[in-house]
Write a structure and sequence with these properties.
This protein has two domains: 121 residues, Helix Hairpins (Orthogonal Bundle); 146 residues, Cupredoxins -  blue copper proteins (Immunoglobulin-like). 37% of the residues lie in helices and 21% in strands. It has four helices and ten strands. Strands 3-2-1-5-8 form a five-stranded mixed β-sheet. α1 packs antiparallel against α2 and α2 runs antiparallel to α3. The N and C termini lie far apart (66 Å).
Amino acid sequence: MLVLRRLAALAVAMVAGFAVGDVAWAGTGQPSPWQLGFQNSVTPVMDYIHWFHDWLLVIITLISLFVLALLVAVIVKFNAKANPTPSRTTHNTLLEIAWTIVPVAILVVIAIPSFKLLFLQTDIPPADVTIKATGKQWYWTYAYPDSNFEFDSLMLKDNERKDGQPRLLAVDNEIVVPVNKNIRVQVIGADVIHAFAVPSFGIIIDAVPGRLNETWFRATREGVYYGQCRELCGKDHAYMPIQVRVANDRDYAAWLDQAKKKYSAIDGGRAPNQVAAK
C-alpha cells in the first residue's frame, strides 16, 4: 500500500505540474507553439472554465488511481497462486450500497459547478455593446445595430498579411469592442450552419440559418484575440477566422466614429466597397 500511496502522490504532483505549465505554454488570443491546454483567459466565463477544468481533472485522476489500485490489489491478492481457494461470497450489502451512493455523490458534486457555469454562459447581462455576427460561405458579416452600420470580414491571404499577423487568423476588417464592457453577440447563419468561437473569451455558439442565438463576453484585458468557425460548413470552412480587438474607451470611441463613416449602410445594404469578393 505504501507503493500505491507514493504512486498517487506522484500522479497528483504531475497533475499540479501540468496545471502550472498550462499558464506558461498556453497563448493569449491565439494558439502558441507547443501549447498545452486552453488559451489564457481574458473573461470571467473563461476564468470559470479554467477552474472547472483543473478541478475536474483532479477528481477524474483520483478516480482513475483508485480504480488502478483496486485492479492491482485484485491481481496481487486474488491470483491462483496467492489465493488457491477462492471465496464463494456473492453479496456484500454494505459494499453494494457504497458503490451506488458514492458515484451519485461524485456526480452531484460535479453537477453543481457545472450548472453554475452553464448559467453564467447563458444568462446574458445588460449589454453595453451589441454585435450581430452572420456566418456566410465563407466569411463573417458584422453589424453594430446601435450604430447602424455593418461590414464584411475576410481572411487575409499570405501576400496581404503584415508582420506579426498570424496566418489563417488575421482578417481585413476586425471587430472592435471596449474593454471591461458587456458585449452581447447575436449569431445567425445566412446559408448553412456555422459556429462563432473565440477561445480566450470562452465562447462558442452555432450560427443557424433562421435562428438567432446569443452569447456574451466581457474582456478584461486589451489586445487582439482570434477565433474561427467551429462547424464544418463547406470547402473553405478553415478560412473564415474571427478577429476581435479589445480597446480602451478612448480608442474604441475613435474607431466607432471612423467606422460609422466608413461602413454606414447605403440603400438598405452596406457600403458598396465593403461587399465581399467571394
